[in-house]
UniProtKB/TrEMBL annotation:
GO terms for molecular function: 2 iron, 2 sulfur cluster binding; flavin adenine dinucleotide binding; metal ion binding; oxidoreductase activity. GO terms for biological process: pyrimidine nucleotide biosynthetic process. Keywords: 2Fe-2S, Iron, Iron-sulfur, Metal-binding. Binds 1 [2Fe-2S] cluster per subunit. Its cofactor is [2Fe-2S] cluster. Transmembrane segments: none annotated. [2Fe-2S] cluster binds at C255, C260, C263, C271. This is Anaerobic sulfite reductase subunit B. PANTHER family: ANAEROBIC SULFITE REDUCTASE SUBUNIT B, DIHYDROOROTATE DEHYDROGENASE B (NAD(+)), ELECTRON TRANSFER SUBUNIT. It comes from Gimesia panareensis.
Length: 291
């Protein structure tokens, strides 16, 4: 991506030690929902721990010897770096091995990698965060950061959906987020006994949003490709432009530094040009099945 790229504001920094895996020890394990767990990790090298910084939207590569490496987003507070927070869904080799680990076990960690959400560009604006399922963890650092500087932003809204009420992440934080000035709206694809909230897909939450100033809003979306496309389409229909919409994309990733080509999407490498893209730059490729 060129220096003059319109998304340079959230560029990925070159990694001087991109191949060096640090040792991280698991300090805390918190089961979230079925198959999804949040880990607090601490780098064992004090110098590495001291210098580690990340921006909302970036990810680490977590390494388990004998299993491999996986890209996992930061899901914790970027302003509080005592531990690094990762929320992980069991998917395959690496994440299943991590799921078997206990407090005190160690794994390898490279990072941070990738571009970040355009938080700086949101000052004075309304912000709509849209998350589907495991798409909420990469947006949670934005929530923490914006709520710590709440006065800088206009209306901040979270539209969040999961398949069922049992699959909703971080529900115990919703009340605190609301008290701090986040408008949290939730929906589920399928209801369950006791559920009194919305039923339907996430883009419908956007349709129902009444207080909405398209000219002064920045939208950040993370979730399945189809959900991101329909949400962006809804936002465009309501008067937003593609330059105001940002998405975080996911593809199978290996090297994380733009060499192996596994995560290529059209001309872009998700690992170094993404995962966060401005919508006009990535939308042509999101539409192509299997790309
Ligand atoms: C930038 C980025 C950030 C991510 N952040 C998180 C996160 O915060 N939490 C989390 O739980 N997961 C996250 N993921 C997804 C995670 O990297 C994959 O689930 C990972 O492959 C799991 O590794 P594994 O060895 O356990 O599974 P694998 O054995 O690699 O994969 C299991 C199955 O999932 C498929 N698969 C692998 N990667 C992907 C992918 N990216 N998209 C769709 N299908 C895939 C494989 O083809 C296979 O069928 C992220 C991915 C990217 C690219």
């Amino acid at each position: 991506m060129s220096e003059n790229s319109p998304v340079a504001a959230c560029h990925s920094d070159p990694q001087p030690n991109a191949w060096v895996s640090q040792t991280a020890v698991i300090r805390e394990i918190r089961p979230e929902v079925s198959g999804v767990t949040t880990y607090q990790l601490a780098l064992t090298d004090p110098t590495a721990a001291e210098s580690y910084r990340f921006r909302p939207g970036q990810f680490n590569m977590l390494y388990v010897p004998g299993a491999g490496e996986s890209a996992i987003s930061m899901s914790g507070d970027p302003d509080s770096l005592e531990t690094l927070t990762h929320t992980i869904r069991e998917a395959g080799n690496v994440t299943r091995r991590i799921a078997d680990m206990r407090v005190g076990d160690t794994l390898g960690l490279r990072g941070p990698f990738g571009t970040s959400w355009p938080v700086e560009q949101c000052a004075g604006k309304d912000v709509i965060l849209v998350a589907g399922g495991i798409g909420l963890p990469p947006l949670r650092p934005v929530i923490y950061h914006m709520l710590s500087e709440r006065e800088k932003y206009g209306q901040i809204t979270l539209l969040y959906g999961a398949r069922t009420p049992e699959m909703l992440l971080y529900t115990d934080e919703f009340q605190r987020w609301r008290e701090q000035g986040l408008d949290v709206r939730v929906t589920v694809d399928r209801s369950a006994p006791g559920w009194q909230g919305n039923v339907g897909v996430v883009p419908q939450l956007l349709e129902r949003l009444q207080k909405f100033d398209p000219a002064n809003t920045v939208m950040m979306i993370c979730g399945p490709d189809i959900m991101m496309r329909f949400t962006a389409r809804g936002a465009l229909q309501r008067g937003m432009t593609t330059e105001q919409i940002w998405v975080s994309t996911e593809r199978n990733m290996q090297c994380a530094v733009g060499l192996c080509g596994h995560c290529q999407l059209g001309p872009e490498f998700i690992c170094k040009d993404g995962p966060v893209f401005r919508y006009d730059l990535i939308s042509p490729y999101l539409k192509v099945e299997g790309l």
